[in-house]
Amino acid sequence: MKAAQNLMAKVNRGDVVTGLLVMNHVWLELIEISRNAGLDYLILDMEHGSPNVDMVVEMCAIGRMLDFPVLIRPVDHEMSTIRKAIDMGPCGFLLPTVQSAADLDKVRDAIYMPPRGQRRPGSRGNAWVSGLHLEAWQRDVEDHFIILPQIETQRGLDNRAEIAGHEITTAMAHGPYDLSYDLGVGGAMSGPEVSAANKQIQAAAHAAGKKMWVIGDGPALRAQG
């Protein structure tokens, strides 16, 4: 998918890429507004937000037409959830509360066609590939699909190396608010415990040759590297 390729080309060059995590104010024109404002992507939040399926499908379609990356944060990473979410047509997922490589194994099986996985696409998920043979699915979807696993628990932090090294992980991600509670410092997202955890996640990403997605104060985060 060209949108995913374009986004990752920027990331791999070391460009600063910025986007929106969209929860409540979701409308089609937001894609054009975001692109014209110089943003690099949108993530439609179906974990906490309120966008309906039809709106998400239409926004993903517009993103593909404009080569503007539109990702989804699904409510969880169970196979049934992921299979339905990928049929909506995003170029990637921000995955909440990933705690182990086994979690990502389930996601891999849900997004890859046999023999690599167990995906069974249907309905609108068939409309945006160039053909229904395996090579088309791999070329148009699988080969460039973006996966950002969020570390939001102590267990996920403990397993950061295996998560970062997983075959489908594109870049590591954090969830500082939920992580702060799991670390026992509820809400102290800029405190030493969460800051130390972020550095550990970033180090695991770098050790695996990957980058890290972060949420928060952009200039401050950029200054921290």
Verbal overview:
The chain is of the alpha/beta class and 225 residues long. It has a single domain, classed as Alpha-Beta Barrel (TIM Barrel). Helix content is 44%, strand content 13%. The protein has eleven helices and seven strands. It has a four-stranded parallel beta sheet. α4 packs across α5 (101-111). The radius of gyration is 17 Å and the shape is globular. The model has no long low-confidence stretch (mean pLDDT 94).
How many whole angstroms does the radius of gyration measure?
17 Å
What best-fitting shape do the alpha-carbon axes yield?
Answer: globular
Low-confidence stretches: none
| Widest sheet, order of strands | 4-5-6-7
What share of the residues lie within helices? 40-55%
Count of folded domains: 1
State the separation between the terminal residues, measured CA to CA. Answer: 29 Å
The CATH architecture? Alpha-Beta Barrel
SSE succession: HEHEHEHEHHEHHEHHEH
Number of strands: 7
Average pLDDT figure: 94
Number of helical runs? 11
Q: Key features?
A:
225 residues, alpha/beta, TIM Barrel, 4-stranded parallel sheet, 3-stranded parallel sheet, 11 helices, 44% helix
